[in-house]
Structure formats: structure tokens, C-alpha cells
Amino acid sequence: MKNFLFLSIVIILSGGKPQIGPNTYDLTTALKKGLISCNFYGNDESPHYYQPVNVEIKNISATPLVIRIPNGLTLKSHDPEIQDVVVTNEELLAIGVNKTVKSPLFAMCIQQNNGASNGSESYLPGAIASGKLAMLTHEIEKRKAFNTLGQYAVWTLTDDATIRSISGFDLKEAAYFKQYVANLKGVPVPEDDPNDYLTNYTEDVVIHRTVGGHFKYHFAKTSAVTIGMFDAQGIIVRELYNNPNTLAGQHELAYKFAAEVYPNDVYYIRLIVDGRIKVNFEMKTKRS
């Protein structure tokens, strides 16, 4: 009873988020000690760079626990064709005796050429990221960069993507991560190519043939809204719209992309609101 009261007081004083105390254990330690059972599985509601994985933890010990899921924890997919991910935000989960807690986890893909996670995919906890990747995942948490820019930055380390690929609508944030990654790798920041549509989000690039459309959507509150174009594996290939402060109300959101630059016959266009996929439809190009 004393332990339960202590845990409750900690949660209240911290504004609802558990704090580290005597009954706090890292996930790996808690599993080794047999204090918890744990499952990780894919999250269909979220893109691979936001909260692609859910965790379900049951407290099988005799006392309330706080379980720490550290920033940098890698999660290994059972399916070798589905991407592994790295956690980009530390989580502290308070769990009562014989209780189960479910929570989505902020994480990002560390295998760009593999397919995105799905609700039927399961994961096992792996090693903790170290070195440059660990520094980057902590910087992503610090800046709350749970977005495509953070994902592109991760791929420069895990998949040898170019620093120039860290591009998006937020030019200031893109420039920040280009410089940050360049410093990590000890290389200069490459100059932007104004004629490269893949890495250019201004209106300067000449587009010869466009494909596009629009969404009509009612937002109940001010929301972070993205329209993303994804390939057949569920991997983001380009943001088509981004407004982190879309006001409440009815909106018509237009988007387009250069068909000559993105040659696949099929893409998936997704309306993503506050990290959740609200609309997902298949777009076939005229070549299909």
C-alpha cells in the first residue's frame, strides 16, 4: 500500500508523468528480472517517422513499477523485410500491480529500403544506439523533431543518405539539421541545388508535368497537418503539404508533385493530422 501511495504522489507532483524513483527500472532490466512481460507491435495509425510502434507492458511483480524506455533503444522487426526502428523519445510508464499499459512510441526507421511497420508486425528490443546516432536521436527529442526532417537526418547516418536530402517545407529547421549532421560527420554542409526537385521545396524548380489533388477536411482544433506521398512499402518519399498550426474549421488543402521526378506507377497519398493517418488513398499516375 505504501508503494502504491508513493507512486501516486510521484505522478501527481510531476503533472501526470512518472518520475524516476526506487521502483523505476529500465525496460531491459525489468525483463531480465522477470518483473514485466512486454510486446512491441506496429502502429497502423501513424507513419514510420512518428509513432510507428506500440508497446504493451504488463506488471507481473508484487509492487507498482515505473518502466523506462530509453531514447536510442532499437527495436528489431521479426520480418527481415520490415524496417527496424530506433526510439527517439524517452518514455516513463507507470504500471500498477497486475496491470497492463499500452502506449505508442516515438521512433524512426533505420532501414530506409525496408517496408514500413504494420499492425501485424512484432518487434524485439535490441541494443541502445551509441555514438553519432545516439547524439542525433537525443537532439530529435530535444527539438521535438518527430517529423520527416528528423527521419531524413537519421537516414544520413543509418542508410548513408546525402545531407542534402534533409529537406522540407520548414527551411530553417532543415538548415539546422543539415548543419548538425554535417558537424557529426565532420564534413561541410553541401550547397543546395535549386534545380533539384527532390530536395527543393520552393516554387523555383520548373515542373513539366504535375499530378495533384486536394483534401477537404474539418479540424476540431488547431492541428499539425501534413500531406505525405508514400511508396508501395509505406515509406515517405515527399511531403506535399505541411502546416503545424492549421486552425480549427473546414479547410481545402491542395497538393501536387512532379510526375517526371517520381516515376512509380502507384503512390499513396496520406493526410496526417497530429501524427495520425486520417486519410489514405492510392494514386495511380497516367502511365498506369
Q: Which descriptors apply to this entry?
A:
288 residues, 7-stranded antiparallel beta sheet, 20% helix, disordered N terminus, single chain, 4-stranded antiparallel beta sheet, Immunoglobulin-like
Description of the structure:
The chain has 288 residues and is of the alpha+beta class. It folds into 3 domains: 2-129, no CATH class; 132-193, no CATH class; 207-284, Immunoglobulin-like. 20% of the residues lie in helices and 37% in strands. The chain has 5 helices and 16 strands. The protein has helices at residues 2-13, 27-32, 131-143, 148-158, 171-185, and strands at 24-26, 36-42, 53-59, 65-69, 73-77, 85-87, 91-95, 100-105, 107-109, 122-128, 210-219, 223-230, 236-246, 249-258, 266-273, 276-284. The strands form 4 sheets. Strands 8-3-2-10-5-6-9 form a 7-stranded antiparallel sheet. The chain has a 4-stranded antiparallel sheet with strand order 13-12-15-16, with no helix packed on it. Strand 12 (223-230) and strand 13 form a beta hairpin. Helix 3 (131-143) runs antiparallel to helix 4 and helix 4 (148-158) runs parallel beside helix 5 (171-185). The protein is globular and about 65 Å long. It starts with a helix and ends with a strand.
